[in-house]
Write a structure and sequence with these properties.
Elements: E1 13-19, E2 24-29, E3 33-38, E4 41-47, H1 62-68, E5 74-78, H2 84-92, E6 97-102, H3 105-114, E7 123-126, H4 129-135, E8 140-146, H5 160-168, E9 170-180, H6 187-198, E10 201-207, E11 214-219
Parallel strand pairs: 5-6, 5-8, 6-7, 8-9
Antiparallel strand pairs: 1-2, 2-3, 3-4, 9-11, 10-11
Helix pairs in contact: 5-6
Length: 228
Protein backbone atom coordinates (compact mmCIF):
# COMPACT_ATOMS: atom_id res chain seq x y z
CA UNK A 1 0.00 0.00 0.00
CA UNK A 2 1.40 3.38 -0.99
CA UNK A 3 1.54 6.12 1.60
CA UNK A 4 -0.26 9.41 1.00
CA UNK A 5 2.08 11.67 2.95
CA UNK A 6 -0.59 14.35 3.38
CA UNK A 7 -3.01 12.07 5.18
CA UNK A 8 -1.39 8.83 6.38
CA UNK A 9 1.32 10.56 8.40
CA UNK A 10 -0.99 12.95 10.22
CA UNK A 11 -1.51 12.79 13.98
CA UNK A 12 1.91 11.29 14.59
CA UNK A 13 3.55 11.08 17.99
CA UNK A 14 7.22 11.91 18.48
CA UNK A 15 9.17 8.77 19.29
CA UNK A 16 12.73 10.07 19.19
CA UNK A 17 14.53 13.37 18.53
CA UNK A 18 18.17 14.32 18.08
CA UNK A 19 19.92 17.43 16.85
CA UNK A 20 23.58 17.20 15.90
CA UNK A 21 26.05 19.27 13.85
CA UNK A 22 24.63 18.05 10.54
CA UNK A 23 20.86 17.75 10.91
CA UNK A 24 17.75 17.49 13.03
CA UNK A 25 16.58 13.87 13.18
CA UNK A 26 13.10 12.78 14.27
CA UNK A 27 11.07 9.58 14.37
CA UNK A 28 7.28 9.75 14.51
CA UNK A 29 4.66 7.04 14.63
CA UNK A 30 0.92 6.55 14.54
CA UNK A 31 -1.27 3.46 14.60
CA UNK A 32 -0.16 2.23 11.16
CA UNK A 33 3.19 3.79 10.31
CA UNK A 34 6.58 4.72 11.73
CA UNK A 35 8.69 7.25 9.85
CA UNK A 36 12.08 8.95 9.86
CA UNK A 37 12.62 12.64 9.15
CA UNK A 38 15.80 14.55 8.45
CA UNK A 39 15.38 18.33 8.69
CA UNK A 40 11.61 17.80 8.46
CA UNK A 41 11.89 15.84 5.20
CA UNK A 42 10.49 12.30 5.23
CA UNK A 43 13.30 9.82 4.59
CA UNK A 44 11.57 6.50 5.17
CA UNK A 45 8.16 5.10 6.11
CA UNK A 46 7.55 1.65 7.61
CA UNK A 47 4.20 -0.10 7.80
CA UNK A 48 4.15 -1.53 11.33
CA UNK A 49 2.14 -4.62 10.38
CA UNK A 50 3.94 -5.26 7.07
CA UNK A 51 7.46 -3.84 7.52
CA UNK A 52 8.79 -5.31 4.25
CA UNK A 53 6.40 -3.26 2.11
CA UNK A 54 7.76 -0.50 -0.13
CA UNK A 55 5.41 2.30 0.88
CA UNK A 56 6.59 5.34 -1.11
CA UNK A 57 5.97 5.97 -4.83
CA UNK A 58 9.62 6.47 -5.76
CA UNK A 59 10.43 3.00 -4.40
CA UNK A 60 8.03 1.12 -6.68
CA UNK A 61 10.36 1.00 -9.74
CA UNK A 62 12.92 -0.86 -7.62
CA UNK A 63 10.68 -3.94 -7.61
CA UNK A 64 11.38 -4.69 -11.27
CA UNK A 65 15.14 -4.79 -10.64
CA UNK A 66 14.82 -7.00 -7.57
CA UNK A 67 12.84 -9.45 -9.71
CA UNK A 68 15.79 -9.68 -12.13
CA UNK A 69 18.67 -10.36 -9.72
CA UNK A 70 19.78 -13.88 -8.65
CA UNK A 71 18.41 -15.42 -5.46
CA UNK A 72 21.89 -15.19 -3.89
CA UNK A 73 22.64 -11.72 -5.25
CA UNK A 74 25.19 -9.35 -3.79
CA UNK A 75 23.46 -6.03 -3.17
CA UNK A 76 25.02 -2.69 -2.25
CA UNK A 77 22.88 0.13 -0.88
CA UNK A 78 24.36 3.60 -0.58
CA UNK A 79 22.27 5.40 2.01
CA UNK A 80 20.39 3.58 4.78
CA UNK A 81 17.45 5.74 5.86
CA UNK A 82 14.95 3.49 7.58
CA UNK A 83 16.17 0.38 5.69
CA UNK A 84 12.91 -0.02 3.77
CA UNK A 85 14.65 -1.05 0.54
CA UNK A 86 16.78 -3.60 2.38
CA UNK A 87 13.81 -5.10 4.24
CA UNK A 88 11.93 -5.54 0.97
CA UNK A 89 14.87 -7.16 -0.82
CA UNK A 90 15.53 -9.51 2.09
CA UNK A 91 11.91 -10.66 2.01
CA UNK A 92 12.00 -11.25 -1.75
CA UNK A 93 15.48 -12.80 -1.86
CA UNK A 94 16.27 -14.19 1.62
CA UNK A 95 19.64 -15.61 0.53
CA UNK A 96 21.00 -12.35 -0.88
CA UNK A 97 23.88 -10.50 0.78
CA UNK A 98 23.15 -6.83 1.50
CA UNK A 99 25.87 -4.32 2.30
CA UNK A 100 24.68 -0.84 3.33
CA UNK A 101 26.85 2.27 3.50
CA UNK A 102 25.70 5.05 5.80
CA UNK A 103 27.66 8.02 7.12
CA UNK A 104 25.41 8.93 10.05
CA UNK A 105 25.78 7.01 13.30
CA UNK A 106 22.34 8.33 14.31
CA UNK A 107 20.68 6.68 11.31
CA UNK A 108 22.54 3.41 11.89
CA UNK A 109 21.61 3.22 15.56
CA UNK A 110 17.99 4.22 15.00
CA UNK A 111 17.61 1.77 12.14
CA UNK A 112 18.49 -1.17 14.36
CA UNK A 113 16.38 0.12 17.22
CA UNK A 114 13.26 1.31 15.38
CA UNK A 115 13.26 0.01 11.80
CA UNK A 116 14.41 -3.61 11.95
CA UNK A 117 11.58 -5.42 13.75
CA UNK A 118 12.42 -8.82 12.24
CA UNK A 119 16.14 -8.45 13.02
CA UNK A 120 17.23 -8.89 9.41
CA UNK A 121 20.94 -9.40 8.91
CA UNK A 122 22.57 -6.51 7.02
CA UNK A 123 26.23 -5.61 6.77
CA UNK A 124 26.15 -1.90 7.67
CA UNK A 125 29.34 0.13 7.25
CA UNK A 126 29.66 3.67 8.60
CA UNK A 127 31.36 5.62 5.84
CA UNK A 128 30.52 8.14 3.13
CA UNK A 129 29.26 6.57 -0.07
CA UNK A 130 31.78 8.48 -2.17
CA UNK A 131 34.75 7.23 -0.14
CA UNK A 132 33.47 3.67 -0.07
CA UNK A 133 33.02 3.21 -3.81
CA UNK A 134 36.46 4.68 -4.51
CA UNK A 135 38.12 1.94 -2.46
CA UNK A 136 35.74 -1.00 -2.90
CA UNK A 137 37.05 -3.93 -4.94
CA UNK A 138 33.88 -6.07 -4.82
CA UNK A 139 31.27 -6.30 -7.55
CA UNK A 140 27.52 -6.37 -7.08
CA UNK A 141 24.40 -7.59 -8.88
CA UNK A 142 22.40 -4.56 -7.74
CA UNK A 143 23.51 -1.16 -6.46
CA UNK A 144 21.04 1.27 -4.92
CA UNK A 145 21.95 4.94 -4.60
CA UNK A 146 19.51 6.71 -2.28
CA UNK A 147 21.42 9.64 -0.82
CA UNK A 148 19.98 12.85 0.58
CA UNK A 149 22.12 15.79 1.66
CA UNK A 150 19.99 18.79 2.50
CA UNK A 151 22.97 21.13 2.72
CA UNK A 152 24.31 20.59 -0.81
CA UNK A 153 23.28 20.10 -4.44
CA UNK A 154 23.01 16.55 -5.74
CA UNK A 155 25.64 17.45 -8.35
CA UNK A 156 28.20 17.96 -5.57
CA UNK A 157 28.28 14.20 -4.98
CA UNK A 158 26.49 12.61 -7.97
CA UNK A 159 29.18 13.69 -10.42
CA UNK A 160 30.72 11.88 -13.36
CA UNK A 161 33.44 10.23 -11.27
CA UNK A 162 30.81 8.84 -8.90
CA UNK A 163 29.06 7.07 -11.77
CA UNK A 164 32.33 5.82 -13.26
CA UNK A 165 33.17 4.22 -9.93
CA UNK A 166 29.63 2.88 -9.61
CA UNK A 167 29.90 1.17 -12.97
CA UNK A 168 33.30 -0.28 -12.02
CA UNK A 169 31.84 -2.15 -9.04
CA UNK A 170 28.66 -3.27 -10.82
CA UNK A 171 28.80 -6.73 -12.33
CA UNK A 172 28.40 -7.11 -16.11
CA UNK A 173 24.64 -7.13 -16.77
CA UNK A 174 24.07 -5.93 -13.21
CA UNK A 175 21.47 -3.31 -12.30
CA UNK A 176 21.51 0.03 -10.51
CA UNK A 177 18.72 2.10 -9.00
CA UNK A 178 19.21 5.84 -8.52
CA UNK A 179 16.86 8.05 -6.48
CA UNK A 180 17.59 11.74 -5.94
CA UNK A 181 15.86 15.05 -5.26
CA UNK A 182 17.13 17.85 -7.54
CA UNK A 183 17.04 21.54 -6.72
CA UNK A 184 16.51 22.63 -10.34
CA UNK A 185 15.05 21.24 -13.57
CA UNK A 186 18.55 21.12 -15.10
CA UNK A 187 20.13 18.66 -12.68
CA UNK A 188 18.34 15.52 -13.93
CA UNK A 189 19.54 16.19 -17.46
CA UNK A 190 23.12 16.69 -16.28
CA UNK A 191 22.95 13.45 -14.30
CA UNK A 192 21.55 11.69 -17.36
CA UNK A 193 24.57 12.94 -19.31
CA UNK A 194 26.96 11.67 -16.61
CA UNK A 195 25.27 8.26 -16.71
CA UNK A 196 25.59 8.02 -20.48
CA UNK A 197 29.25 9.04 -20.40
CA UNK A 198 29.92 6.40 -17.75
CA UNK A 199 28.50 3.78 -20.11
CA UNK A 200 25.24 2.91 -18.35
CA UNK A 201 22.21 1.72 -20.26
CA UNK A 202 19.39 3.93 -18.96
CA UNK A 203 16.39 1.61 -18.97
CA UNK A 204 13.99 4.10 -17.42
CA UNK A 205 14.23 7.56 -15.92
CA UNK A 206 11.44 9.89 -14.85
CA UNK A 207 10.24 12.33 -12.23
CA UNK A 208 7.84 10.70 -9.79
CA UNK A 209 4.40 12.26 -10.23
CA UNK A 210 3.47 14.46 -7.29
CA UNK A 211 6.97 14.36 -5.78
CA UNK A 212 10.33 16.06 -6.32
CA UNK A 213 12.12 12.69 -6.64
CA UNK A 214 13.68 11.48 -9.86
CA UNK A 215 14.43 7.79 -10.36
CA UNK A 216 16.70 6.13 -12.92
CA UNK A 217 16.86 2.37 -13.55
CA UNK A 218 20.22 1.39 -15.02
CA UNK A 219 21.95 -1.65 -16.46
CA UNK A 220 25.63 -2.38 -16.97
CA UNK A 221 25.31 -4.03 -20.36
CA UNK A 222 28.16 -6.49 -20.85
CA UNK A 223 29.09 -5.35 -24.34
CA UNK A 224 28.48 -1.63 -23.97
CA UNK A 225 31.70 0.40 -23.86
CA UNK A 226 32.30 3.64 -22.03
CA UNK A 227 32.23 6.67 -24.29
CA UNK A 228 35.44 8.48 -24.90
Amino acid sequence: MLVDLNSALKNGYLLSYLKDNTAVWQIYHNQQYQWLLMNNTVQSVMDKQLPALLTLPHQQPLKSLVDEIPINAKVLELGLGGASNARYIKQQKPDCQITIIEQSSVVINWCERYFNPHKCQFNIIQQSAEQFILADQNQYDLIITDLFKSESSVLSYLDQNYFLQLKRILKPNGFAYLNFVPDTDHEPQLIKTHLAHAGFDIQWGEKIIGFKNWVFLLKNNKFKHQRG
